[in-house]
Design a protein that fits this description.
Layout: E1 3-6, E2 13-16, H1 41-51, E3 59-60, E4 70-77, E5 82-87, E6 94-96, H2 105-121, E7 135-143, E8 159-166, H3 179-190, E9 199-206, E10 218-224, E11 228-232, E12 235-239, H4 249-261, E13 268-272, H5 278-286, E14 291-296, H6 301-310, E15 319-324, H7 332-335, E16 340-343, H8 352-365, H9 374-381, H10 384-391, E17 394-396, E18 412-417, H11 420-431, E19 436-444, E20 454-461, H12 487-499
Parallel strand pairs: 3-19, 8-9, 13-14, 13-16, 14-15, 16-18
Antiparallel strand pairs: 1-2, 4-5, 4-7, 5-6, 7-8, 9-10, 11-12, 15-17, 18-20, 19-20
């Protein structure tokens, strides 16, 4: 949304969509400093979708500033002069960004708090050349969930879950001795009952690798609440520090509500690349789905899914499951029995086996290829990766005991894309041979200040039907086999003949 500013004489007000950030020239986070509501890539994207028949393709924007609710920042410099920010483009030099305009205000306030703790305790920022120091990175995640306040005040009052990435193997290492002191100081000054109540919780992650991978495999909850909740599209979703989550909560909520409208009531849904299952769980609640399967390779998402599942309304009557599995391994198995398949892949796009499975599922649904025999299905079920997915699954049975329909294949494909270049390639592969066709699409400005957008694309199975001309238009009906005049056209022709 444009920002309102006063002119110097205060006689009038103007609206601006400029970034106006003091860190712009050096920080690698933003590439645009003007017209944040119209990233240049939209010209290409709009032209692409117009050619595919999407006449009203638009971009949905929310806040252009203070939208980012997740940040992973490097910690470098010295204990007297810590630098917390992003690496300068093509370098290992960290640009300090204490006043980032994209960050939620609570993130910038937490950065200030972390710097004060580093300076007072003499905490040593990480030196990657020498592989020395204590604090490597800091992750900050804002939760706007707060039932003690009116909903309109939730966002502005967001609290931060802060995770300190410590250069140690675990909490018992000698290097971790001062971790507790830093956590306690942060909590003392930022806990909900303090004079500066900006923190939700304090966590630690332990990482000793010399690579550029931010997190290690060990996490520890230190202070505050262990569960971070966010209300999205009317349901409460739980996140751990290791969970993937959207940075722009407000605009993604708009995307989610539009996505829900593309799913028929009572559908059976499978979601690949599901993460913590946010999309799937929201559909189970809002679209009264018979079944919802969520498939995700990251085992860390399981706990979040379990906690979110336990918070669903008692009225939800769906068979719901989460499976820890690589969607690119035997993906066709997940698609059978579903009416709707949802894919939300990383920036690189869909894995080739997933594309092939989606094409195969469409052909089977159209009756152009036969479904596998029960012997073949049994063999797939007994393969190691399928057994592991079942063993590590989370299930909630419905009261109605819905049974999965055999030989049913998706007729709707919903693609949530954060990588435009990858989406174009995936699109070409999906529609080849009339296996799928594009029915609708919309863009979402999830990353103001960048030249990136999120695309929600709705595909339908098979060949795109010819455009039907509405009755009463007075023109030839291109969809009619005989190309006869419509009724309105006949009346017009009859009237002209009588006048002559």
């Amino acid at each position: 949304m444009p920002e309102m500013m006063q002119t110097k004489d205060k006689s009038s007000q103007v609206f601006t969509t400029d970034l106006d950030c003091q860190h712009f020239t050096r920080c690698s986070g933003c590439v645009l400093d003007t017209n944040l509501d119209q990233p240049p890539v939209m010209e290409e994207v709009t032209e692409f979708f117009l050619k595919q028949g999407v006449a009203e393709f638009t971009l949905e924007s929310g806040n252009l500033w203070e939208w980012r609710c997740r940040a992973k920042l490097a910690v470098r410099g010295t204990s007297m002069d810590p630098q917390i920010g992003l690496f300068e483009e093509s370098s290992h030099f960290v640009v300090d960004i204490p006043s980032c305009r994209a960050h939620h205000p609570s993130i910038n306030a937490t950065i200030k708090l972390v710097k004060e703790a580093i300076q007072e305790l003499g905490i040593q920022p990480y030196n990657e050349d020498l592989h020395l120091g204590e604090l490597r990175y800091v992750q900050m995640v804002v939760t706007t969930f707060n039932t003690t306040l009116p909903a309109a005040e939730w966002y502005a009052s967001g609290k931060v879950q802060v995770s300190l990435v410590w250069n140690a193997r675990d909490e018992d290492s000698i290097q971790a001795d001062r971790l507790n002191k830093m956590a306690e100081l942060l909590w003392q000054r930022g806990n909900p009952k303090s004079a500066n109540p900006i923190l939700h919780s304090v966590w630690a992650n332990f990482q000793t690798s010399r690579t550029n991978i931010i997190f290690g495999g060990r996490w520890r909850h230190i202070l505050g609440e262990s569960e971070l909740l966010e209300r999205m599209s009317g349901i409460d979703i739980s996140f751990t520090p290791a969970s993937f989550g959207q940075a722009n909560l407000q605009v993604f909520d708009v995307l989610l509500r539009r996505l829900q409208k593309a799913v028929k009531i009572g559908s059976s849904v499978v979601e690949l690349y599901a993460g913590v299952g946010l999309i799937g769980l929201s559909l189970a609640t809002t679209r009264k789905c018979r079944t919802v399967k969520c498939v995700e390779v990251n085992k860390e998402a399981r706990l979040s899914f379990e906690q979110s599942l336990s918070r669903l309304p008692a009225s939800v009557n769906s068979n719901i499951s989460w499976h820890c599995a690589d969607a690119s391994v035997s993906p066709i198995k997940w698609l059978e029995g579903a009416n709707v398949v949802i894919v939300d892949p990383p920036r690189k796009g869909l894995d080739p086996p997933v594309i092939e499975a989606l094409r195969t599922a469409s052909l089977r649904g159209l009756g152009k290829t036969k479904s596998p025999s029960s012997k073949t299905t049994d063999k797939v079920e007994k393969r190691p990766w399928m057994l592991r997915a079942k063993q590590g699954a989370v299930h909630k049975e419905s009261a109605s005991n819905w049974e999965e329909e055999e030989n049913t294949w998706p007729d709707t494909l919903i693609y949530v894309s954060c990588g435009w270049q990858a989406f174009k390639l995936d699109y070409a592969a999906l529609v080849e041979g009339d296996t799928w066709y594009l029915d609708d699409a919309k863009a979402f400005n999830l990353f103001p200040g960048t030249n990136s957008i999120e695309v929600l694309a709705i595909f339908k199975r098979g060949k795109k039907p010819p455009k039907v001309v509405k009755k009463g238009s007075g023109v030839r009906s291109k969809s009619a086999k005989s190309l006869q005049w419509t009724r309105a056209g006949k009346r017009l022709a009859l009237g002209n003949s009588k006048q002559s």
